[in-house]
């Protein structure tokens, strides 16, 4: 669904002109189309209809309260990876019994907070984490619901920095060791063994690696059954890709159709942790051209957003499409240019060597497919206040996170006492 379209020559987010938002809120600003997010969530629900399932949105992709609240209102849960995410999810109205907790480095206070909140399950990633969780649960007089996150060693065929299910990655428990760990976990007094989970990587554009992983997990589930250990939940993680350029990722329906036969045979509750897919294409980063600059080697368009706002191009060399907000920008003249930010790093670019309209000071641009891992990975590097976030729904729009102020930059800082 393309919810960013030109109307009367101006790019709109649903029914709202991006020019209007830029004038009212300034730039850089993240703009999210709520209908697109809801439509993606509904597509998952429909694809798995008839199977007992729970969609736990991987909130690391975009943890804005309004985004989380949109999914919570549709029956969604959350996949969390920190105590901070736990607090945000609960505050946004995600019920604790719809929260799963992943991550290799859960801290003691985080385990304790999640136990007290009563989450659905901990996706445990090491033998030592099992021991620590058992001890903390015992001290609190609680039982910890656990699943072991296994590493199925399948190649997700995605960018090396976002592949997670290979044996050499830090994530999960080795498949060969998982069986023994299950028998061990079942004997620990303060744990309740609930399920099995995996997450093989992000931005996957094929279904086959998911099917491979599911089959390996299904095999483990059957072996455990023969030992008398009955699981209730299978969690396949997230990872379905989106379209940044020419990719053709599977739809939730295609994904579900390939998994369904194996899942039906298993009879377990399915948990999924999609992040990017639910929010990525629904968001743009709105930025204004500040300077156009030509060196002997290249043309540069310097904008007011930078790598501190959207680090994906610098970090993963990732592609984001860019569209001028005014359809007639450049009046038909085009040029190959880099779109760069004002940060003092050569790696600070948003777009490289792209055929673009000739852009002038004051022109607005939308960096597309920026709803996932955009604001969430932003920073204040170079002492730049973080961008505002706006949510659009039909003709309505609202600021759902105000732009940071200059005062926000040094909040909490003090001189040392001997300096005063
Ligand atoms: N579950 C677990 C345990 C994860 O580690 C992740 C993502 C997800 C679910 C959600 O994956 P998704 O559906 O969004 O692909 N910053 C990178 C992506 C890092 C993904 C990390 N884990 C990027 O900008 O491409």
From TrEMBL:
Catalytic activity, as annotated: meso-2,6-diaminopimelate + H(+) = L-lysine + CO2
EC number: 4.1.1.20
Cofactor(s) listed in the protein's UniProt record: pyridoxal 5'-phosphate
Tagged with keyword Cell inner membrane: no
InterPro entries noted in UniProt: Ala_racemase/Decarboxylase_C (IPR009006), DAP_deCOOHase_LysA (IPR002986), De-COase2_CS (IPR022657), De-COase2_N (IPR022644), Orn/DAP/Arg_de-COase (IPR000183), PLP-binding_barrel (IPR029066)
Annotated PROSITE patterns: ODR_DC_2_2 (PS00879)
Modified residues (N6-(pyridoxal phosphate)lysine): 60
Family per record: Belongs to the Orn/Lys/Arg decarboxylase class-II family. LysA subfamily.
Protein name: Diaminopimelate decarboxylase
Gene: lysA
